[in-house]
Amino acid sequence: MTTFAPNGSLNVEALRQEFPVLSRDIRGKRLTYLDSAATTLKPLRVIRAVEHYYRRGTANIHRAVHLLSEEATGLYEGTRTTTQQFLNAKDEREIVFTTGTTGSINLVARSFVKPRLKAGDEILLTCLEHHANIVPWQMVCEETGAKIVVCPVNDDGAVNFEAFKKLITPRTKFISCLWISNALGVVAPIREMIAAARSAGVPMLVDAAQAIAHVPIDVQALGADFLAFSGHKLFGPTGVGVLWGKIEHLDAMPPFLGGGDMIKTVSFEKTVYADAPAKFEAGTPDIAGVIGLGEAIRFVSEDIGFKAIKAHEDHLLSKAEKALGEVVNLRVIGTATPKIPIFSIVMGNIHPHDVGSILDSYGVAIRTGHHCTQPLMARFGVPATSRASFSIYNNEEDVDCLVKALWKTQELFA
After folding, report:
1. Residue positions annotated with a catalytic role
2. Could you tell me if 184 and 339 are in contact, meaning their C-beta atoms sit under 8 angstroms apart?
3. Rounded to whole angstroms, how far apart are CA atoms 37 and 385?
4. pTM, full prediction
5. What number is the average pLDDT over the span 376-396?
6. Which residue of 33, 70, 297, 325 has the lowest C-beta tally within 10 Å?
7. How many C-beta atoms surround the C-beta of residue 256 within 10 A?
8. Do 405 and 388 form a contact (C-beta atoms < 8 A)?
């Protein structure tokens, strides 16, 4: 039995009390936070865990025998165990702590993919990708003579799976695709994509940055080679994330960064690196961030559960789709199903930044711009959109506040 979903139904009003920032007034209005696709809010459980480390136990890890260091090391490595269980990874050594999804993808690009590339090889992406899953691949392609191949998306934002399968050729050396679009909320057919990659013998990375707070993830059942996510998308701290990789890959990969705590022995003539995952965690990590991430994972797993999350988000999705459909001169980009409650909207000739500014005056926080998906924006012929993204702490009143503010925007520009 979970704290906020004792019967599988989320007690949203009780849950909202766990997020202190929701008690703020914004410009004299109730805060309606609809920017969770960028960064989720942090619950008291996570805030207290980070604060406790700094108040009561600040010390470095792995390097000392005094009590504070032992406690910090236990909490840090405890998060590794928690993450392994959360992802159902086969081995704790498959969990590498990074700076986030971006850091994880760069690690794979540099240490796993680049050494395997030559001129003429191909890396397959989709048009949905975040810049963090485009730029690192461009960099290694420029250095090796390989090239990027892009799978198109349909007019509703769905990945064209038939095209995806055809684009996997003997030249394809790696595939990297997101699970859920941060810009549109559209869910890619990731299991089918992984199956196609495996059938062709091509290793694949899953960008789960947007998926991690919305769907349960079992990496063994999923069958990919790598998976990356960021803590701040999962109600945890910023600046910390996870790379999961099959242990055989991690063992074969050289380290990306050199420094302390990633070695067995060092001399001026030669360094012997530590085993995975330590060889990928050079220097003093974000200890407090990793501790906070562990608490965030336990918050989702123990206090809520993905069954309750899905039921609540499906309800918000349905209500918001209906309400937004009644706003005149409003277009939602990305209507494919399945999707999560993220709405990328265009309102006639009103610039998205104007929409965002007006909504802010009503206490409604949304994201405006290209959402680090400029190629996707170009695909739909727009420079930017206004994006409203919902999470577990949003309720029906948030939907109403958004729609009322959008109507007010229409009136101002009528």
Report:
1. 372
2. yes
3. 14
4. 0.97
5. 98
6. 325
7. 18
8. no
Structure tokens at 96: 């590498």
| Lookup: tokens for 262 | 């990633």
CA 56/CA 59 separation, integer angstroms: 9
At a CB cut-off of 8 Å and minimum separation 6, what does 385 contact?
Answer: 183, 333, 344, 345, 346, 352, 368, 369, 370, 371, 377
Tokens of 12: 């949203």
> What whole-number distance in Å separates Cα of residue 229 and Cα of residue 243?
7
In the chain, the amino acid numbered 177 is C
Chain centroid to CA 138: 21
Helical (H) or strand (E) element with 376: helix 374-379
Each residue's pLDDT tens digit, 81-106: 999 999 999 999 999 999 999 999 99
C-alpha 336/C-alpha 401 separation (Å) is: 25
Label residue 1 by pLDDT band (50, 70, 90): very low
**What domains can you pick out in the chain, each with its CATH number?**
12-41+305-413 (3.90.1150.10), 48-302 (3.40.640.10)
Q: Rounded to whole angstroms, how far apart are CA atoms 393 and 19? A: 8
Residue 7 confidence (pLDDT):
83
